[in-house]
Design a protein that fits this description.
The chain is of the alpha/beta class. It contains 15 helices and 22 strands. Helix 2 (61-77) packs antiparallel against helix 4 (94-112), helix 3 packs across helix 4 (94-112) and helix 4 packs parallel to helix 5.
Length: 469
Amino acid sequence: MDHAFRLLIDGALVDGAGAMPVINPATGQVFATAPRADAGQLDAAVAAAGRAFPGWAARSYAERRAFLERFADGVEARFEELARLMTLEQGKPLDQARFEVGGTIAGLRWFAAQEIAPHIIRDTPSERITEHRSPLGVVAAITPWNFPLILLVVKLAPALITGNVVIAKPAPTTPLTTLMLGEVAADILPPGVFQTLADANDLGGALTSHPGIAHVSFTGSTATGKKVLANTADTLKRFTLELGGNDAALVLDDADVTKVAPAIFGAAMVNAGQVCLAAKRVYAPRAMYDDLCDALGDLARAAVVGDGLDQGSQIGPVQNAAQYAKLIDYLAEAREQGRIVAGGAAIEREGYFIAPTIVRDLPDDARLVREEQFGPVLPVLPYDDLGEAVAAINASEYGLGGTIWTGDAERGERVAMLIDSGTVWVNRHLDLPFDVAFGGAKQSGLGRQQGMEGLLEFTQAKIINVAKG
């Protein structure tokens, strides 16, 4: 494409120190070039953010709200351009890309309307003690390739409205929508308040350990999250880590297979399975096991897989070559250890397409059961005792989310209390309203995003203790 993408540094759209190709996963071919920042540009961005922070923090909530509302208007004006660009670089079907851009705009507007008021702890004739919340400073927002815009906005918007300034570093394989967001911001936000740095995965260490960064908000794999956490230690930076998951879908014996199978399939295959909160393994009562496997297999065979820009495509390609190769390995092992109900191989065409796959009869220690596959490949396991199923679910090092599928919602809520994860849905999935916080248990993360808790993550408590008279 002929669009000239640039970094946003100190209010100016600038070329990178170098350039890097961006691949359309539906073709496996380069379709655009992104600027590549170097260490000097990173330092320049941090310095600019440091200069911008005092003035932005000094503004009132109402003043910052007005900027964010204009920012949302600017994104809305480029709605279709952003959605199409997202499909080109990320691969998801265009309707899913439009949904994400719509959520991005809605997130900007929702967080713009929030405010953290002072909390009076004690007010007597002799004293007044109040807790205020102060912004932290320069926030590094590091995002993955599966949802390049909405996962940025749930960091960017709460950070900005509470008075922080933000440097965004997108994933190297999906930098373009973030850079376009920077183009919108360049005409609206004061210099240094929001900046964009694209890299080839070589600046993360320098950014997360930089003494000018006060808070790191990271979404990505658990392995990378541990490196980020280590990098924050020397300066005791604040951080939020939203990491991997191996979410289980637990089907109870009172569920209706004909109703839950489409819901579970959607929970597993949305965005080609590349969702941290996707259903990544299914546990079903043995009496229902064959019927559920067959129903999921029918859905997999019927799903329309194709280029996200093609009308009617329901499942797009896997986003990048590395993830594609990882899934090929999972499939090879699954064919050896279990039985393929549907799919089971790459689709012979250009691009990174994997057939939607349902696998049954795998052992509990299979990699596809224990690890986070992050693709359109779903293992289904039987259970004879609900307690054993819950124990198998909780044996994972992950604890991000999960789902319960049942004909009795109250029973489902009781069972959900037994699942060791940050979020459990009952008879629904991926319901993530902005006013509800989410985050992981165990090795699925630290801290919370969204809701009031997500706003507080970007602030420091300050107690003002006044003796009267």
